[in-house]
């Protein structure tokens, strides 16, 4: 496995698994409802979501390679990187918070959609899958900017999605049992580190464009001792964007994001307080 596509493989695996989990829940509800007529609109919605996500990736790549250059390209890549960081952060905590209720929520929504018709079923499947697709595209696009422009990111995300689809099918067919909680926890940790690298790259872009100060305040410079094209240099740059040289602000943002989000992620989830019902008595009040 090439080190250049490891981050993209991880992104494709993580988001692909979340999408596969959603589709598996929907398919299970349809199967138990004995509504085979709902399969066509369901898969139509899934297919449209995949096409829309692929279209977004094509548009981002076309804009970056055909329309922009210089400072405008730095701005575009920095802004898309910030959007990707914000989206992946939201999705990680959303999945952590909603993991226990996602099956019940999707089941209720699909039950309503089954009564509304094929268009509602397709719309539900589209919305449930497209958020994973958009997150995946933005993350892969942003992480690919930090490494050489090759086909490795595309190959990585396709391999990750293919692995997720296979694993999802095995779970749906009851061939494999996977501890999804543990899997999502550790992939979330790796994604947080990837997102920290993307945030660092966004700072680099803004500094190059002149929007942030400190572009010449170098925190370290190991370019004379660390070969950027070496396997370890490529691995660090492709996964967490730790490059042979970086500015003070880049390292500060990387550290603050990684440490802060990891602490928040591993804090015990807050439970809603249970309000006790007032105790009533059948005995008459004393005179």
UniProtKB/TrEMBL annotation:
Keywords: Membrane, Transmembrane, Transmembrane helix. InterPro entries: FTR1/Fip1/EfeU (IPR004923). GO terms for molecular function: ferrous iron transmembrane transporter activity. It comes from the Bacteria. Belongs to the oxidase-dependent Fe transporter (OFeT) (TC 9.A.10.1) family. Coiled coil: none annotated. GO terms for cellular component: high-affinity iron permease complex. This is Iron transporter. It is a multi-pass membrane protein. It is found in: Membrane. The chain crosses the membrane at residues 6-30, 42-63, 75-94, 106-130, 150-171, 183-203, 251-269. It comes from Actinoplanes nipponensis. The lineage of its organism: Bacteria, Bacillati, Actinomycetota, Actinomycetes, Micromonosporales.
